[in-house]
Amino acid sequence: MRALITGATGFIGRYLVDELRRLGWEVVCVVRKKVQPLAPGITCVQGDLCDLDALDRMVPQVGSVDVLFHLGALMPSTSGANKACEFLIANGVATYRLLEIAETIGSNTFIYLSSISVLGQPKEQPVTEDHPYLPHLPYGLSKLFGELSCEMIRRVDVRRVISLRITSPYGSGMNTKTVLPHFVNQALASKPLEYFGSGDRTQNFVHVSDIVQACTLAVDCPNPGVYNVGGETISMREVAELIVRVTPGSKSIVRASKTKDPQEDYRWEIDLTRSRDLLGYKPRIPLEVGIAKLIKNMKGGSVCRSW
Hints:
Blueprint (H helix, E strand, L loop, with lengths): L1 E5 L4 H12 L3 E6 L10 E5 L5 H11 L4 E4 L13 H21 L4 E7 L22 H19 L3 E7 L1 E3 L8 H10 L4 E3 L6 E6 H12 L5 E5 L2 E4 H11 L7 E3 L16 H7 L7 H13 L8
Parallel strand pairs: 1-2, 1-4, 2-3, 4-5, 5-6, 6-10, 7-9, 8-12
Antiparallel strand pairs: 9-11
Helix pairs in contact: 1-6, 2-3, 3-4, 5-7, 5-9
């Protein structure tokens, strides 16, 4: 099997490349900057999702592939500098163009990593794949553009197009500016872990290896469509307490900060029934185990493995 992967050097992409190589796949990685692969069976071609002409130019270098995994995306900046139109081009228009390119390079299977953010604030519990779309930020809107593009192609074409709607991914090599690494660093230093608001807001965390599992299951899935890919739901206060409990020697306390939580009323109970029954997906990494691994890697200074 031969795969094309966008976002191959990103957090999830690195794990997916490793897994496909372990399974004996040949992998073509789309990268923005020139990268020298560290393992055999991997080819890199340059292409920027924000540059549609660059995507077209990479086609002759790619050759024929069996599966296109579209993981690449423009992520929200912590500075808030990104504009809505940038998200829409990089995450929406580029997804549609890649769907067209997939047909050109002979890929009958297109797997798109979407985001639970396409739903905005959940209005129904549990959250199924049929929950109404209510994105409230440009990133979520752009991912919805990509997801709807996939659904349109799926309905008018014979190709297998699958969207995996990811909750909150975590694991070694994740963005260190997000809540779990921040809490882990505080716990390792025995400093207080402070949550916003009441700490009752919940979030659903899924380990990166379970996301990769869903990607590989999607390759042979006979039921194209949208699938939730999640793990365990936990409140912000509870996850802080869990991290302190499993961090060896930590003397941290968990307490409320003076900052209000802008998502105080958010609750995420993710329904995985469709994913289990039609995709064969079942999360394998319990949250406590995954967080313990994250703590061990961060304590040891481990960096994300790289192909």
